Prior knowledge:
single chain, alpha/beta, seven-stranded parallel sheet, 7 strands, 50% helix, binds NADP nicotinamide-adenine-dinucleotide phosphate, oxidoreductase, CCDC32, NADP, SDR_fam, cytoplasm
Amino acid sequence: MANIFTGKVFLLVTGASRGIGKQIVQTFGALLEGKSHVLLLSRNSELLKKSVDDMPEGVVASYKSIDFSQTSTRELKDVLLDSMKNEKPESFERAIVVHCAAMANFTQLTNEMTDLDEWHKSFNLNMFSPAVLNGIFMDVFKNQATNKYVVNISSYWGLKPDVYVGSYCAAKAAKDMFFKVFALENPDVQVLNYLPGFVGTDMFHDVLKVSKNEELKKKISQMVADKSFVTPEQTVQYLVEVLKKQEYKSGNMKTSVADPWSSVDSCGNGDAGNSDLSEASSSAATVQKSFEDSFVDSSATASEDLQKLPDSEQYLARLQSRLKAIQGGTSKRDLINSLSEAKEDCIARLITAGQNLETAEERELAANPVIRHIAPHLQALTANELVHLLKADVLQKVVDEQNNQSENEDTESKSTDSQPDIQNQDCNGL
Length: 430
Ligand SMILES: NC(=O)c1ccc[n+]([C@@H]2O[C@H](COP(=O)([O-])OP(=O)(O)OC[C@H]3O[C@@H](n4cnc5c(N)ncnc54)[C@H](OP(=O)(O)O)[C@@H]3O)[C@@H](O)[C@H]2O)c1
């Protein structure tokens, strides 16, 4: 059955000298039929040449040393056209481009990223060059006869923020979005954003060597000890299956392995680019069926992780005593007593004054709505209004007393209060 690798194929792989890119060349190369072309790009020509030498017979392979952090449109175009070796683009049944080259700096905090040249290099390599190369590739293979496929190698760091990798996270996120837009604009091209998982490559081991993120280093050391990371062979084998079966919607993201950032078995399907959820797995990795992309650290919300401030008990006791004081006079017993007094008063009035429930004073002071409306200053207060005002006065007195009391308490406990704030700030740091 025909698939992405059958027929005469043109395959371009960036970052082909090492790691995942090198494995893609090997695995894809072995599936290609004769007369297919392979073009390998990265900086290290010695390693690229080795990969070219390993290509199966019949496949026309070439390589070019190129630094994507400081290349130009002209150079990228020339490299691609030269590799065609006078073949017409339309002679290829399929054209595949795999954007894999990347590099991260694991040592800088965002506030330290003030060198514009470094920003340019990072974005040139991780975002701009793939975008430009992709456009050139599409232009060369613009004919209708050639089926076109784009594979963008994504990263969790393009989905989830992490310390010390700010420029890499930003560039990877931008690159993912670029290819999603590209997919929308080019429905005739199959676009896959592929998340390879935590793969045991140079990049993976570099984290251990140079990263300043101690938490991440601990996690990776554990993965190395458990051998729970994915090998390049495993992740590329899964990628091959996805591509062969076309098990994705163009522009979607696909991953084969567990979210290395979370040990929680959560299956949140955050948008993250309309993620397709993987069914396949690697034998070495602890496999989840999806990744969490909620941008919320679920572990931080776990109740066992919530630490009590040292003054929690005192604070609660103070609140309780204030509540008790405010509740004074409104207990159930007080309410029943006052109701029973009102009831006796009412009965007495019924007996002595017949049907009239209002007291003589109340009747005398009853508000005349007309006078009240036209001359409110001439209308005396009714008995009910007086009662309300009295109540408000008493309440104000109680509140004032409480405020005075709590002010005194605050002054006494000032030294105890300032300490936990400082400790709390420390807890929220790195
Ligand atoms: N390893 C992981 O756990 C992991 C996880 C998620 C995503 N990824 C993604 O997978 C892809 C490959 O990563 P990897 O783990 O295989 O990394 P790697 O082993 O460090 O390989 C990086 C590749 O990029 C090339 N490269 C680096 N800087 C370059 C430049 N300035 N110009 C041209 N080529 C350059 C390197 O070749 P030269 O040195 O010869 O130039 C090499 O071939 C990356 O896109 C990465 O984001 C990896």
